């Protein structure tokens, strides 16, 4: 996605907005180095000082990371994600703890208010997840597992909870990858069929217990 040339008013804010949008839309992936200060200045039609201030602001908010002598890298896709990454860092137990706080409530809400269409989506994602595990396609497994949990959160119809969860999605994906052992047989792998059944049956208490159970086990082992 090419960056649009900015107007000459509020240049720093405009550059911040355009860089933020480019990051959110996947112009540069997490961990990828963005173009140099000079290249950004030329593409945006602004001075290098303007770009420097915008990058500094986005680094402060957690979206970018400036590595002296190396360049500037994408660290998160939103301010919420950046803030949570700063708070949790790379500590798996902390990420799992945040997931537990959000996912248990999300499971309760999903069991209460999910639609038939949402249940079908959740079911399909869980089938994709389990099929990928059986053939040891770990990349697909991690993606499907993350999307499964996000679908459960969305089925709770709480916009703020969904936005908070989307903010930690990179951390969720990383935690799924970190806690996946492809060598375990299906019978010993983490399963979510109980959670699916509880949501399907609109049993909110069981849904909460299922969500809390597997996360408590992961936290104990982390």
TrEMBL record:
It holds the Pfam family GntR. InterPro entries: GntR_C (IPR011711), TF_FadR/GntR_C (IPR008920), Tscrpt_reg_HTH_GntR (IPR000524), WH-like_DNA-bd_sf (IPR036388), WH_DNA-bd_sf (IPR036390). Residues 9-77 form the HTH gntR-type domain. Keywords: DNA-binding, Transcription, Transcription regulation. PANTHER family: REGULATORY PROTEIN GNTR HTH, TRANSCRIPTIONAL REGULATOR, GNTR FAMILY. This is GntR family transcriptional regulator. It comes from Amycolatopsis deserti. The lineage of its organism: Bacteria, Bacillati, Actinomycetota, Actinomycetes, Pseudonocardiales.
